[in-house]
Amino acid sequence: MQDSQKEIAKLRAEIAEHDRLYYREAQPKVDDQAYDRLKEQLAQLEAANPEFDFGESPTQSVGDDRLEAFESYRHRMPMLSLDNTYSSEELIEFGKRLEKRFPGQTLKYLVEPKIDGVAVSLTYENGKFIRAVSRGNGTEGDDITQNVKHIDGLPETISDAPEILEVRGEIYMRHGEFERINAARESAGESLYANPRNLAAGTIKLLDPSVARARKLNIVLYGVGACEPDNFFTHQAGIQERLKEWHFPVLEKYWLADGIQTAWESIEELDALRRKFTYPTDGAVVKLDDFTLQREAGFTAKAPRWAIAYKFEAERAETLLKEISLQIGRTGAVTPVAILEPVQLAGTTVSRATLHNEDEISRKDIRPGDTVVVQKAGEIIPQVLSVNLDKRPEKSEPFHFGAHLKELGIEAERDPGQAVWRIVNNNDPVRQQRALQHFASRACMDIDNLGNAVIEQLVSRQLAKTPADLYQLQENDLLELDKFAEKSANNLIKALEASKGCELWQLVHGLGIPHVGKQSAKDLEAHFGSLDAIMQADEETLEEVDGVGSIMAQSIHAWFSNENNRAEIERLRSIGLNFTTKCQAPASGPLSGKTIVLTGALPNLTRDQATDLIEKAGGRTSSSVSKKTDYLLAGEASGSKYAKAEKLGVPIINEADFLALTD
Ligand SMILES: NC(=O)c1ccc[n+]([C@@H]2O[C@H](COP(=O)([O-])OP(=O)(O)OC[C@H]3O[C@@H](n4cnc5c(N)ncnc54)[C@H](O)[C@@H]3O)[C@@H](O)[C@H]2O)c1
Question: Could you report the predicted ipTM of this complex, rounded to two decimals?
Answer without folding.
Answer: 0.95
